[in-house]
Description:
Blueprint: H1 27-45, E1 48-49, H2 50-57, H3 61-73, E2 77-82, E3 93-97, E4 103-108, E5 114-121, E6 126-133, H4 139-156, E7 161-168, E8 171-172, E9 177-180, E10 189-190, H5 191-199, E11 203-207, H6 208-219, E12 227-232, E13 236-242, E14 245-247, H7 277-281, H8 283-290, H9 295-320, E15 324-328, H10 336-349, H11 352-355, E16 359-362, H12 369-383
Parallel strand pairs: 4-7, 7-11, 12-15, 15-16
Antiparallel strand pairs: 1-3, 2-3, 4-5, 5-6, 8-9, 9-10, 12-13, 13-14
Helix pairs in contact: 1-3, 2-3, 4-5, 6-12, 9-10
Amino acid sequence: MTDATSGPSHPHEPFARRGRTRRKAGPSDARRHNRALVLRTIFRSGPLSRADLARVTHLTRVTTSDLAGELLAEGLIEELGTRADQGVGKPATLLGLVPDARYTVTLDLSDDERFRAALVDLAGKVRARRSAEREDRTGDAAAELAIALARELAGMAERPLLGVGVGSPGVVDPAGTVLEAPNRGWHGLDLAAALTTALGVPAQVANDANAAALGELSLAGPADRSLLCVKIGQGVGAGLVVDGQLVVGDRFAAGEIGHVVVDPDGETCACGRRGCLETAIAAPRLRRRLAGQGREGAHAARTAAGHRLGEALAPVISTLNLREVVLSGPLDVLDETFRAAALDAIRARTMPAVGDHVDIRFSSLGEDDVLLGAAMLVLDRELGVA
């Protein structure tokens, strides 16, 4: 049987695990760890037999069978029949995830014009969607709008709710408190507690760029790679994953590139400084620059904005030797011109051994990256499968 511990092997393990209190492990911790290991293996690998699970997880066959029986009784997994290519011997029964066994309500609060919400199943499939116009709401009014949207989606769930996952702008601590989000007028807002009170289920809140990065990491490729996900909405932020681990920083503000000054003579930012990256490439400001422009003017505006992003990212990419940069945001302002300009600026400011291997692409999850990443937050905290 594998060793089980009460906490992650890394202090910044992805998703909400990083916020758990350290304590001495006991028998119940070992069982929870092993249960999560079995469920996570099925989640990532697809249908497996009990023998397959024992081999992959390094648990004993008795332990694997016992845990599989528990998960079957809870309706989280199901028996799918025998393997088609079974050789000699007793046919092995495959076990697979039941995608609609539980639902998660997810919120994406990053957009400057509207809040978006979805009902997501265990396989990451969106079952329902809703949105609400923000109409420049800030402070308590914006929080109430988010809670009302979550309630609406919860009322549509035909299966038990696992929890609520949220991607919010600003600096968010592991407990789900938005410490600072200037564009939303939120300072010390315990959004997780408010949602838990309103819906009666656990709520997990993360920075929107971190949520987008986790969505890319969990649902769009190998789980142990490194990437930088740049989220562009009303503000600008980045989610940084290194060797499969989300980097949150000492005060949970890692990736707050939006308030790096790139033009001391630029526009005034919501934070009070002048010329922050946010003033150059945030979606509302870039839309204003594009308004009324002809083809050449729009190309020049997107090129200038892309260059500003590349200038800000070059030191980060060079320091960490990152290869994968993912752009997340509205496609009416982020296009190939913007992407190419950012890449050119990075390559012009880094040594060839770094810059020549950098790839910048748009999110493989489209506009759902924050919603799906927020769902993974809940899956990890409640089931340990992320």
